[in-house]
Fold this protein.
Amino acid sequence: MKGTVAVRRRPGMLDFAVYALPALPLAVVVFPSHAILPGFYAQHTRIPIAVIGMILIVARVFDAVVDPLIGFLSDATMARRKSRKPWLAVGAVLLSIAVLPLYAPSPNVGPFYFLGWFLAFYLGYSFIEVPLKAWGTELARNYVDRSRIATCLAVAFGLGNLAFALAPFLAASDARSFDATALKAVGWGVAIAMPLTLIAAAWLVPNGVVPETDKTRIGAVLRALRYNRPLLHFLIMFVLTGLGQGVFYGMVFLYVTSVLGLQSAFVWVLLADALVTLASVPVWYALIRRLQKHRAWALGLAISALALALMSWLAHGDRGLLPLLVLVCVRAFGSGVTQVAPNALLGDVVDYELFKRNVNQAANFHAMVSLATKFTAAMGAGAGLMIAGLAGFDPRIMNPPDVVAAFKMIALWVPALILVVGGMAAMGFPLDRRRHALVLRRLERQVRHAA
């Protein structure tokens, strides 16, 4: 190592909070883009639902190419320019342009309209998400500061989820649902807030400490996937968590509306989930400091799994509404750990790779996680719905008890089991606080020796 590029001052909590601001408008649109928009286009445009499904598959293939490419190029340009902010600026422009037509389609739009704007939207989203999280990894390397940065991101994401859940109440929507009026308001809000929050972050927050490293190459990425044990362990934990949550998220709307018969309650379920997730973030920050990141992650998954299992016993109709909301809150609290721990833990994995191979792969690793997030959400939801359909479930009719039992098994017990296995994997994560401190000390010695 040749040394480091120093910042003018050490970043503090105010820097971390301003840095996290762009995550708020991102969170407003990340959930509806795969959970609300497909159904909305199926109901309100002339695009067949099978074609919409194909478009979603194409989007996942597109992500499989784009996210790793953005991660690789972002790391490569970071080595020369010492800043990831230009990537964020390009992403803000793309996303702000795409979100308005995507969220406000006319009834006569066709498949290419949805496909084109959907891909443009996700391209802008990836231009922001991957470099933004890599920047956070480089903003501070202390074990606790990493948790603070991840907590700020989690709070911003929680506020964004809450803003989306409140959209039917804040917009001039008579139906108090996610109709055309509410979605159009969401699109305008994000188009305005996205560039403003990124300007604030880019202007006020420093780039952080960036070690001088070897040039990022494709071979280094492949070697990390093969030889970096903490990275492989992290990806296993993350994929299991994502699959478990993906199955539930993809089926929760049908569970609430068709299985429990609580059609008008879904907006309240979503609001309760967003409020509790946001409120849980500071609690998980405190638990992470006490238990360490990987153990807190395991605890959160166990709580979520328990809540999902208990949901299978809820009664149909209004009698099930109150216990449903209680269990939704318990599950949301448990899943709140995934808003904090993964981002903080991945930063430690980046440090381990830097120590072992002298290559900064922050954006590459975050690109892997971004791709895993989208893949598990699509695969979990798609597989769950497909299996439920093969079991005979039809949301338009009163299903027989054995079919309802099969749906509950798929929607609740399967994801609960996946989350339990993910929690067990998290307990065995090899890079704990003590080992990360050793990595940091050795990195500092290498820098002093090279200087």
Residues 1-8 have pLDDT under 50 and may be disordered. The first helix runs from residue 13 to 20. The chain has one domain: 4-450. The two ends are 8 Å apart (CA to CA).
